[in-house]
Amino acid sequence: MRTQVGIVGAGPAGLVLAHRLRRAGIDCVVLEDRAREYVEQRVRAGVLEQGTVDTLIDLGVGERLQREGLVHHGLELRFGGAGHRIPLSELTGGRAITLYGQQKVVEDLIAGWLAAGGDLRFEVDDVRVDPERARVEFTHDGARHTLDCDIIAGCDGFHGVCRPSIPNGVLRAYERVYPFAWLGILAEVAPSSEELVYCHSERGFALHSMRSPEISRLYLQVAPDEDIERWPDERIWKELRTRFATRDGWTLNDGPVIEKGITPMRSFVVEPMQHERLYLAGDAAHIVPATGAKGLNLAVADVGVLAAALERQYRDGDATGLETYSQTCLRRVWRVQHFSWWMTSMLHRLSGDDPFEPRLQHAQLEYVCRSRAAATSLAENYVGLEHV
Ligand code: APR
Ligand code: PHB
Q1: Is the beta carbon of 112 within 6 A of some atom in ligand 1?
Q2: Pocket flag, ligand 2, residue 101 (CB < 6 Å)
Q3: What percent of the chain has pLDDT over 90?
Q4: Beta strands in the chain (DSSP E)
Q5: Does ligand 2 have an atom closer than 6 angstroms to the CB of 217?
Q6: What is the pLDDT of residues 15-58, one digit of tens each?
Q7: Tens-place pLDDT, residues 93-121
C-alpha cells in the first residue's frame, strides 16, 4: 500500500490532520489500534478554545458542536469560601470557550471522515513504524500490511508506538510528575453553576464542569496512587460538598454517577517533535496537566502547523514548514506547559507541611481576582492565544 501521509492514531490529532489534508487534496490513511466504539466512548476533557471550535467548523464537522456546545464567557475561581468571576470574554475582546466532550469531537470527526470515503482502519495490531523509510507495518483483519508513505504523522498518544520508534539519544524528554491525581465523575444531574468553578480548598482542589444542561462533570484532587474502590459515590459527593462550600451556602446538586475514573497529572515534552520522516503531534509529543484544559487544543494546534507545512511542500515544493515544524510547535507547547503548570500549582493542595506555600497560593489567587492585568493574563491563555 502507498499513501502520502500515514497517520497513526485516530484521536483528535490524527483525525483533524486527516480532514485538513483531505481538504488540501493530500492523500492519507489513518490507523487506529482500538475499536471505533472504544475511541468514541473514552471520556476525556471537554473545553474547546475558540480556535479549536473555528477549526472544526471550518472542516465541516461543527454542526452538532454549534448546536449542543455550551459557550462560556467566564469562569469562577473559588477559594477562602467565596467565588470570584473571571470575565473571560470581556478581558479578551469577546473570545469564549465551548464545553463539548472530547468523545463527541472524535465521534463527529470519524463520522465526517467515513462519510467522505476516507480510509480509516480500526483495530489494527502490532504496528511497527520506521521513521527513516516512512514505512508502517501493521496487521488488520488477520493480514499483515505494509504502508509506504512520504511522511508519517505520529498521532498515537502518550502510550503509542511512534515516539518509542525513534532511536535512543535523539529525543530529549522533559517531565514533571505531580504528587496528585484527579478523580473525575460524570453525573446525571443539572450543573450547579452556569460556569466552570475551579476551587482551591484546604482539603485540596475541586473542579465543577459540565457536558450538557443534564450532565455534570466533577473532579477532586486525590493521591496519585488513590484506589477508586475507596471512593463510593456518597464519599465523592460529601468530599465535593465540603471543598466547594462557600460562606453564603452554595449548594451542589447530586445525582447518579454514570462514569468515574482517576487521571494522573503530569507535564511532559519531547524535543524535537520530529525525526527523519516521522512527525509527532498531540499527546505523542507532550502531555499537560488537565488544570488548564489544554490537551486537545494543543493537539489541534500541532496538526494545524503540520497540515500547513505539508500543503506548502506538496503545492510549492517548499520544505521550510516541515523543517521548522518542531520549532514552531514547541513555542506554543512551552507557553501552554507554563500556563498549565501555573494553574496547577496555584490551585492544588501541595504536598508537605510547608505553611509558606498556601500563603503564596492565596496571594496569587487574590491578585488574579483583583488585578485586571493578572486576570487578563489568565483569560487570554485560557481562551487560547492566537499567536505565540
Ligand atoms: N497504533 C495505532 N493507534 C494507536 C496506537 C498504535 N500503536 N497506540 C495508540 N493509538 C491510538 C489511541 O487508541 C488513540 O485513539 O492513538 C490515539 C491517540 O489519541 P489521543 O490519546 O486522544 O491523543 P491526541 O489525538 O494527541 O489528542 C490529545 O487526548 O489525551 C487526550 O486530553 C488529551 O485532549 C487531549 C487529547
Ligand atoms: C472537563 O470538563 O472535563 C474539564 C474542564 C476544565 C478542565 C479540565 C477538564 O480544566
Answers
A1: no
A2: no
A3: 97
A4: 5-8, 28-31, 47-48, 70-72, 75-79, 82-86, 97-99, 119-121, 125-130, 135-140, 143-148, 151-154, 172-187, 197-201, 204-210, 216-222, 257-271, 274-275, 278-280, 286-287
A5: yes
A6: 999 999 999 999 999 999 999 999 999 888 899 999 999 999 99
A7: 999 999 999 999 999 999 999 999 999 99
- DSSP code for 350: P
Residues ≥6 apart with Cβ < 8 Å to 46 = 99, 100, 101, 102, 209, 211, 217, 293
Q: Are 228 and 261 in contact (CB under 8 A)?
A: yes
Nearest C-alpha neighbor of 50 from the set 382, 348, 320, 276: 382
CB environment 197-232: b (16+ within 10 A), e (fewer): bbbbbeebbbbbbbbbeebbbbbbbbeeebeeeebe
Place of cell 471550518: 58
Cell of 144: 499483515
Rounded mean pLDDT, 140-164: 98
Does the beta carbon of 209 lie inside 6 Å of ligand 2?
yes
Ligand 2 atom with minimal separation from the 292 CA: 10
Query: Are 17 and 308 within 8 A, CB to CB?
Result: no
Under 8 Å between Cβ of 91 and 375: yes
